[in-house]
Amino acid sequence: MGNCCCDEMGAGRHSVGHAASSADAASTVADRFLRSRGAGASTQIELSLSASNLGDQEYFFKSNPIVVVYSSNDGALEEIGRTEVIVNSSSPSWNAKIILQYQFEVLQPLVFHIYDIDPQFHEVGEKMLKLEEQQFLGEAICNLSDVITKQNRLFTLKLGVSEHNLPNPSKFGELTVQAEESAGSKALMEMVFHCSDLEIKDLLSKSDPFLLISRMSENGTPVPICKTEVRKNDLNPKWKPVIMNLQQVGSKENLLMIECFNFSSNGKHDLVGKIVKSVAELENMYHSGNGENFFVPASNAHDCHSKEVLKSQVYVEKYLENSRHTFIDYISAGCQLNLMVAIDYTASNGNPRLPDSLHYIDPSGRPNAYQRVILEIGDILQYYDPAKRIPSWGYGARPIDGPVSHCFNLNGSTYQPEVEGIQGIMSAYISALRNVSLAGPTLFGPLLSTATAIASQSLTNNQQKYFILLIVTDGVVTDFQETIDAIIKASDFPLSIIVVGVGGADFKEMEFLDPNKGGRLESSTGRVASRDVIQFAPMKDVHGTGISIVQSLLAEIPGQFMTYMRTREIQAIS
Description:
This is C2 domain-containing protein. The chain has 574 residues and is of the alpha+beta class. The chain folds into three domains: 140 residues, C2 domain (Immunoglobulin-like, Sandwich); 135 residues, C2 domain (Immunoglobulin-like, Sandwich), CATH 2.60.40.150; 242 residues, Rossmann fold. Helices cover 19% and strands 31% of the residues. The chain has eleven helices and 26 strands. Strands 18, 19, 21, 22, 24, 25 and 26 form a seven-stranded mixed β-sheet that branches. Strand 3 and strand 4 form a beta hairpin. Helix 6 packs antiparallel against helix 7 and helix 8 packs parallel to helix 9. The protein is globular, with a radius of gyration of 26 Å.
């Protein structure tokens, strides 16, 4: 991905958490602060388009085609861009690139319309053409992930004409879409910052600083790129590495604003100080070893450009440039993301036959909380798994005439946990509700061990697979240490874990699973996780920026994936 991150694609944003600590929600709130100021994880993509056999070939039809590309949001089309017009061609290859941002965590439906431009309009610029005055040649629809997941990122679509009621769609040819990451996405700059003599902002303790890094736009407005983790009670903090790519920065001469904030749990973080430097100047700071004094706007100055220079300084302790394979490189080379699902069948969910149960199946078809989480995550991940065979388990229930099971196959099979696709999960989930008795307690250890065993077997077989285990729960785990031990073991394998809390329970005690707490998990034998693999969030915990909790959790997956690939030195080879 093209997002900025800490310590290999986001580790600073999701360092493994610990049980309730003084860091409660620090980095979580700081992440929301970053998002609220407009930052997001995305990679710039260039689409190249070509077509074949446009129009009616029986009459040696040749046209003057143009492609108009739209994004689709609940059926509403928003134009992204247009190609140039190719004169007198039934199999054109357009030079103009369509530029858009790829975001792993959201579906990105694309609609392609091809028009034949009447010769009388050939002197009119493409953006000025009135499409309703042109002949419609065909339409193609796909998701951007359809293209990204194909080998060589090359996807061919049949042109249809459904909304325009044109006859004989077989005569309207094909459209080929090829996606390429911008060159700047692969040119990376890694930096380590530390500060000295920060001002004390808290009355009863030292400051809890973090850095927010923004690119200065042409009009002087800062555009956030990334943030560091929060350092608790530290006036001389050193943060984990941040990694930015050239796409985000623009060029090494572009100015960056580096702001140091003192974390506040209410989201109103106090500005400690800031500097404005280009990447080239930051590199020079590293080579010289010199620090730069923070400044703040002068409080009593009439001139808005006046500033007060502080004694606090920021240093660049490390600066490194390199080029690496990206998340998209691995995916298009054939690496698959395989979803695994585990559903809570403990008694605290309530009687499934009653409308107030979290497991109530509404006759109207309205999904319950469990179904909503599975559908939202499954709708994204299914494009990265060609086979769509999904291991699915339940936990915390008593099968007919059996003891309580903390990891049973949803499909009722003794040996085979896989179901066919997202609808297979839905069917097995509902069937299991009829065939088990809700019980308890809530244990994650057996689930995590089972999922890790599958990931381990895949690794042994040298398969190009990475697994994502989704656990949906309505309560707090009771096997804390067993869960921690299983998480730490899982960190050595191609596996990420997403835990989503549903219902009205108090999930405070689950915060030891939240990766944004700044601590680290330690096993019963003293081991720590080799990398960050787990995230937790309650479904009711909604971001204020239109970003769902599920999307914010999924957004961390590419970083965890890349950390695994890089630490294992696994190359993206087609």
